[in-house]
Amino acid sequence: MKAKRGSRFSLRTREAINGHLFTLPFVIGFIAMFLYPFIQSIMFSLSELEISTEGYKLIWVGLDNYYNALFVNAEYPRLLAETALQMLRDVPLILVFSFFAAILLNQRFKGRLFARVVFFLPVILAADIIMRMESADYISAFLDASLAEEAAVQGTLGTIFSRGQLVSVLMYMKLPQQLVTYIVSGSEQIATIIRSSGVQILIFLAGLQSISPSLFEVAKIEGATGWECFWMITFPMLSPLIVTNIVYSIIDFFTIPSNPLVDFIKSNMFGGAGYGVAMAMSWLYFVFIALFLLLTAGLISRKVVYME
Amino acid sequence: MSSRLGIRKRRLARSTGGDVVIMLFLLIGALFMVIPMILVISNAFKPLSELFLFPPRLIVRNPTLKNFHDLMVMMAQSWVPFGRYLLNSLVIVTFGTLGNVLFGSLAAYIVSIRKFPGSRIFMSMVVFSLMFSAEVTRIPNYVTIAFLGWIDSLKAIIIPRWSAPLGLYLVSRFIDGMINRSLIEAAEIDGASDLRIYWQIVMPNIKPAWLTMIILSFQELWRTQGGHYIYSEQLKTLPYALSQITQGGVARQGVQHAVTLIMMIIPIIVFVINQSKIVDTMGHSGMAN
């Protein structure tokens, strides 16, 4: 049967047809649910949205909204820069943490499944329904308020060392100033970083489990040590997923609802600067993230090892 | 991974110091996350008097099932039978996840292995669409759904999920990185069709990838309240029903904690089953033997 089909079309054509057939369900949905809104939102960003009883009406204003977002709005450019800096600080830490956590969670030890659940927990807890319930909890609201008060008194909270101690230890080690600030601000973010690396750990774990054990077997027979195995097998085999996780972390960082910029855009959407300007803001934001991704992923993909 | 070899041969030597460091590292990390979990669990069993204690206790002193009992009573009184909410949620989660994994991985297979004309553009579009947060596309999505006439039906939540881009991206990265091309070539020479290569070679080899995809999709759909598209009470989901229960203020604090526990425990169960499935898949990954 296959030969018959083969005689009618060339291999290339058949592959192309198969390709289109296989992707068709996804593509249709994709066009309807993502591409159409994509284009629609460009239209929105270039016009003023007016909501009336008959629906909505668009008034073409050209690039006014973009000008408004960048030069008239007082907060937007500052927030954009702040978020970018924060991302630069957090994403490398998230990656390193999730990489090593995944490797540890892939070891065989008692209670491994429980440990995995614990590290996946933040993803579950981040569900907005649970968040909302937490926020409706009177005691935790009270607790938050008193913690904030305490924080205002002490300056910072939530670290094992107080900030001053850590800084002086690191300075004593003669580390460069910038590195010290990076480590200190990173250590203040420990809880946030662990919380936002649940999915990344899971992806790395899945990657670790997809590495064929025979590779390690061969390496062992050839006399490779665990250290060599890690750098010669585990690391290169996981390298495509490192890019995946960088992309995921950056996107996740930029789009979680708790991101102040996302919040700002949302608050402008219905009220504030208006829907059109909010759309322009999110488009600028989008272009900004896209450039960022292209740059980082492009730089790192060169080092990636693919199975051939 | 070294330990995986250890099953067959002798356990590979690893220093106890290394073990201690691993456990210590995991413990510190785990502390940040396990405390909220303990709190949620013990809160669910606290009587009202203990719930309002300040400072709050981590572990419950006088555990009671009253919160769950209250929840049951409330469910029994609800206007729409409670099983209906559960059914809606189950339908959404099952079909949404199934479709998402199936269509996403099919497309990923073709994009990664067949490289049809336009596959590169397609892939970059998928990555770009990841960057859109749900808020941005809300109005156009509503318009599309309304145009299709799916408003106020479960379709409105399930079908869009089938083309969620994250799964496709993830699976295609796994195929790129983990599948040995010579395996595919061998299968082709033996005359396997695309569907067969997809189902019998690619999918078993990247089982961890699509199991991960199932978790993520489940997690996403489980919390769906259906707010924007579904208006009939009998089509609303379980999270919606439960969140309504908790709107009662101070008097329902206890029930609210019971609800939080229920909402949390089900994804955890799914995760545990899912993860224990991953482990026994490996070992026969197709190459060599």
Characterization of this structure:
The complex is a heterodimer of chains A (308) and B (289). Chain A is mostly helical and 308 residues long. Chain A contains 15 helices and two strands. Chain A has one domain (72-301): MetI-like fold. Chain A has a two-stranded antiparallel sheet with strand order 1-2. In chain A, a hairpin with a 2-residue loop joins strand 1 and strand 2 (55-60). Chain A is globular and about 75 Å long. Chain A starts with a helix and ends in a 7-residue tail after the last helix. With 289 residues, chain B is mostly helical. Chain B contains 14 helices and no strands. Chain B starts with a helix and ends in a 10-residue tail after the last helix. Chain B has two domains: 2-64, no CATH class; 75-279, MetI-like (MetI-like fold, Orthogonal Bundle). In chain B, helix 2 packs antiparallel against helix 14 (253-279), helix 5 packs across helix 9 (165-178) and helix 9 (165-178) packs antiparallel against helix 12. Classes of the chains: A mainly alpha (308), B mainly alpha (289). At the A-B interface, helix 2, helix 4, helix 5, helix 6 and helix 7 of A face helix 1, helix 2, helix 5, helix 6 and helix 7 of B.
Task: Report a brief summary of the structure.
The complex is a heterodimer of chains A (308) and B (289). Chain A has 308 residues and is mostly helical.
What would the keywords be for this entry?
heterodimer, A: 308 residues, mainly alpha, MetI-like fold, two-stranded antiparallel sheet, 2 strands, disordered N terminus, B: 289 residues, 2 domains, 14 helices, 70% helix, globular
